[in-house]
Amino acid sequence: MKRKKIILFFWVVALLVISGPVLAADVPRMSVDELKAVLGNDNVIVLDVRSGRDWKSSEFKIQGAKRAEPGKVNTWAGTYPKDKTLVLYCA
Predict the structure, then answer these.
(1) How many domains would you assign to the chain?
(2) What percent of the chain has pLDDT over 70?
């Protein structure tokens, strides 16, 4: 029985690893120049989703960006209007 659980675990991990890039492919991406062109637009909300130390220690932050905890998406995702464009960045 333990062997079956281990095999099932590896299949689940493999499925997640394979499906991750496929799901991410559906998310539109934006270049730095494209972002610069829309900064200040009232219809665009920029969210900095870098985790703890990466966010705190960074000297590079986009002016006007709001901080959003990456591990709490379910908490903050519904707080933004659906008619706005959300731009999330983490690097």
Answers:
(1) 1
(2) 70
CA-nearest of 55, 57, 86, 60 to 70 is 55
Distance CA 88, CA 91 (A): 10
Asked whether residue 6 is domain-assigned, the answer is no
Q: Is residue 13 part of a domain?
A: no
Q: What is the dihedral of CA 3, 6, 10, 16, to 10 degrees?
A: 140
Report angle CA 62, 66, 70 to the nearest 5 degrees. Answer: 105
Residues 16-35 have pLDDT tens digits of: 555 445 455 677 888 889 98
Rounded-to-10 torsion of CA 26, 35, 61, 70: -20
